[in-house]
Amino acid sequence: MAEDRTVLFRTDWLSAAAEGRRIGDPGAAVSTVEVDSRAVRPGALFAALPGERADGHDFIAPALAAGATAVLATEEGWKRRSAVLEPALARAGAAAVLVPDALEGLQKAARAWRLRFPSLTRVGITGSSGKTTTKECLGRILSRKFRTAVNPGNLNSEIGLPQAMFLLRPEHEAGVFEMGINHAGEMDALVRVWEPSHALVTNIGTAHIGILGSRRAIAQEKKKIFSRISSEGSAFAWEDDEFLAFLAEGLPVRLRTFGPRTLEGFEGCRDAGLDGWILRYRGAEIAFPLPGAHNLLDALAATALADALGCGPAEIREGLEGVTALFGRSEIFRGRVTILRDCYNSNPDSAARALEFCDSLSWPGRRIYALGSMLELGPASETAHRALGDRAGRSRADALLFFGAETAEAARAAREAGFRGPVVHTDDFDDLARAAGDLARDGDLWLLKASRGMELERLTEILRRG
User: Fold this and answer.
1) N or C terminus: fewer CB in 10 A for the chain?
2) Which pLDDT score is estimated for 52?
3) Over 212-252, what HEC string results?
4) What is the CA radius of gyration of the chain?
């Protein structure tokens, strides 16, 4: 998180909020909250959390040396390292708050911080895809009417959302927070922290299906975002969602829908290709700069919620026209080749939409689709990658590049679908880069689509340099 030297709280408050035992200076001042020791600056609280690859307790001493004034850690983790950590704490003049579970302690503190702002309008957004873009669209719109906080980047998980809570300030009137989950029970933790008074589910798709097991299980988990909404709040979902009836069951408010058919005041739109959309809403003409039908739906979702919160057509127009593409999400790079970089996330739904969009464009040159592995699909991975390859093999592409071990089946399926252009498969990035460099020609349109772990954005500069 960005450095902010304003004092947020002191460690006596933290020990009460996290329900922990404090050692060290009760008045130690905290200005930022970090979970990565490399981001620690003077005045930070370092929350030592266990991770898949490393234990945050092993980085407490470096965090103190970097200027952390407070540490949140487990009793057990601190005790095992007390011979090193207690002298380091004393040298730093800092404090430690010890709890049974550091993540739960961070979540309790985050909730306590959020409760300092009881009049805040709280919006939660979740879904299998589109939630980040919807959050950015809505945040832009609401900022025209309210002083609005938006969680940055991907601070949307059971770790990231609590960290983002500490961005809230007394001047904020509204908050728009993305809530992402990848395992059962995670939404319960997110809702306890944020308690959205208004919530929206963009869609129920297949992201993280390998962990959650089925789309029904995904729907059950996503629906929990509505669990703290009162009769004064609002709930929204996509008009064509297969799980719409399920999402509507048992809510204290009527589930409202968004989409081109059901958004009240929507008067139609024109596809502007890579330049986005021209849409009309309650008499206002809006030049929305993000391309593709999926981004249009995100804009309509944000418009529906903004309308419910009292924003008018002028505010909605100004907000939507001010949206810019985030890293890896519908970014357009123009030059000797044109690149559509959409490689922050990929799953069967979003990959199919990306192929459909690129096929729909009126393009004078060649189309080359570089498709990387879709991760976290579990047992469904082979079937999903074969379906991706089959769809790509029937696309308007002139060449296909598949990157990652999982995409071997996709390459095979593309050939079986009758694709007649070059098909390249590799799980070595250097091989991929050489193949891309050999294939690229002036005037090409390139699609880069993959899960974040594949880091397919590395092809961007290779293609731009030629």
Assistant:
1) C
2) 79
3) HCCHHHHHHHHHHHHCCCCCCCEEEEECCCCCHHHHHCCCC
4) 24
Same domain, 171 and 270: yes
Q: What is the DSSP letter of 59?
A: G
Stated as kind and residue range, the H or E segment containing 106 is helix 102-114
Which of 273, 295, 321 terminates a domain? The answer is 321
Q: Which two tokens stand for residue 270?
A: 């024109």
What is the rounded distance in angstroms from the CA atom of residue 353 to the CA atom of residue 347? 10
Query: Which 3 state secondary structure label does DSSP give 442?
Result: coil
> Which CATH number fits the domain that encloses residue 31?
3.40.1390.10
306 near 314, Cβ under 8 Å? no
> What is the tally of structural domains in the chain?
3
314 and 344 in a single domain? The answer is: no
Rounded (to 5) percent helix, strand, coil in the chain: 40, 20, 40
Show the DSSP H helices in 372-407 as ranges. 381-393
Written as one letter, the residue type at 238 is W
Q: Same structural domain for residues 316 and 370?
A: no
Q: Name the domain boundary from 75, 101, 127.
A: 101
Please say whether the beta carbons of 235 and 251 come within 8 A. Answer: yes
- Whether residues 155 and 287 share a domain: the answer is yes
Over the stretch 10-63, which tens digit does the pLDDT of each residue have?
999 999 999 999 999 999 999 999 999 999 999 999 999 988 789 999 999 999
Burial-class residue 371 by CB neighbours within 10 Å (0-12, 13-18, 19+).
Answer: buried
Task: Assess if residue 4 is contained within a domain.
Answer: no
Report pLDDT digits (tens) over 93-128.
Answer: 999 999 999 999 999 999 999 999 999 999 999 998
Q: Quick count: other Cβ atoms within 10 Å of Cβ 431?
A: 14
Torsion of CA 433, 436, 440, 445, to 10 degrees: -110
Q: By C-alpha distance, which of 381, 375, 450, 382 is closest to 182?
A: 375
Q: Mean of the pLDDT values across residues 447-452?
A: 96
Q: Indicate whether 278 and 306 sit together in one domain.
A: yes
> Do 207 and 257 lie in a common domain?
yes
Q: Quick: pLDDT tens for 254-288.
A: 999 999 999 999 999 999 999 999 999 999 999 99
Please give the pLDDT value at position 229: 94
Q: Which domain holds residue 456?
A: 331-465
Asked if pLDDT for residue 2 goes beyond 50, the answer is no
pLDDT at 211 over 90: no
Residue 66's pLDDT is what?
A: 97
Distance, CA of 71 to CA of 360 (rounded, Å):
53
**405 token code pair:** 């071990």
Distance between CA atoms of residues 33 and 151, nearest Å? 14
Question: Does 256 reside within a domain?
Answer: yes
Q: 257: domain CATH number?
A: 3.40.1190.10
153 and 262 both lie in a single domain: yes
